[in-house]
Amino acid sequence: MISTAGFHWPAAQGAAYADRLKAAALQGGVTLAGLGVSPGFVVERLALGATAMCAEVESITMQETVDASAMASPAFVFDLMGLGSDPAKADIREGPLASLYTALFSEVFHHAAAALGTRLVSLEPDHQLTLAPHDLQIAAGTIARGTVAATHWQWRAHYENGISLAMSILWTADRSLHGETPPGHWLIDIKGRPNVHMTLDIEEPDPSAPPSRALSDATVAVALNAIPDVLAAPPGLFAFMPPAPFKGRFT
């Protein structure tokens, strides 16, 4: 079973949760895999894989920027992304949406701990909101002045081996609200010896299609391309591990 909506690293939700899933998979003789782009690929397979080039690693930072202005689904933009919400009525940084994204992206940090051969010590949130300075008309509808025009979900993890991993996820209705944003969809910085910098972008080749289709296609492609590996894996919980990442061999 391949999911693009969770199950990337179930142990992040606690042993009882993960053990129940694993036991069910073993009993049914199936393999459960949570796969996708972010989470699922950008940090877990790309950024962590790039640490193989480092003799020393101090920190890993991933910045994601997604422009929601062309996304046509109101349910996705307003409900799932939280744009258009009124902070005077409810602060989404402290509600169920924040809990959902913390649960989802915490699996990335625990996956990274396993790949780096260490353990997670702390996970610190620092979420920010950008309010619309005036009414914004986007494909999904209108974002009223004073409501949320962008969500900036941010966490920083500290590990026993001294490495920190920071994730910054900016979902915005208007990139111009944030000054100069990083190019592309993702910016990865690894501080160490040597430093490593990567920019990852995906784009829709069909000019008549919505730009957001590129990310949907990429997410589905990751799942489809993984089918042979998931089928070949033994029953239980499945996750791709980066090839020979940094584990402090030379320090």
Number of helices: 5
Low-confidence stretches: none
The value of Rg in angstroms is 19 Å
Structural class: alpha/beta
Shape: globular
Helix content: 25-40%
**Termini gap:** 40 Å
Major beta sheet summary: 7 strands, mixed
Number of domains: 1
On the 0 to 100 scale, the average pLDDT is: 95
Task: Kindly describe this structure.
- With 251 residues, this protein is α/β, with parallel strands linked by helices.
- The protein has one domain.
- Helix content is 28%, strand content 28%.
- It is globular, with a radius of gyration of 19 Å.
- The termini are far apart.
- 31% of the residues are buried.
Write the layout of secondary structure elements.
Layout (H helix, E strand, L loop, with lengths): L1 E2 L11 H14 L2 E4 L7 H9 L5 E12 L6 H7 L15 H20 L4 E6 L2 E4 L4 E3 L2 E3 L4 E12 L4 E9 L13 E8 L2 E5 L12 H20 L3 E3 L13
Parallel strand pairs: 1-2, 2-12, 3-9
Antiparallel strand pairs: 3-10, 4-8, 5-8, 6-7, 8-9, 10-11
Quickly list its features:
single chain; 251 residues; alpha/beta
In short:
With 251 residues, the protein is of the alpha/beta class.
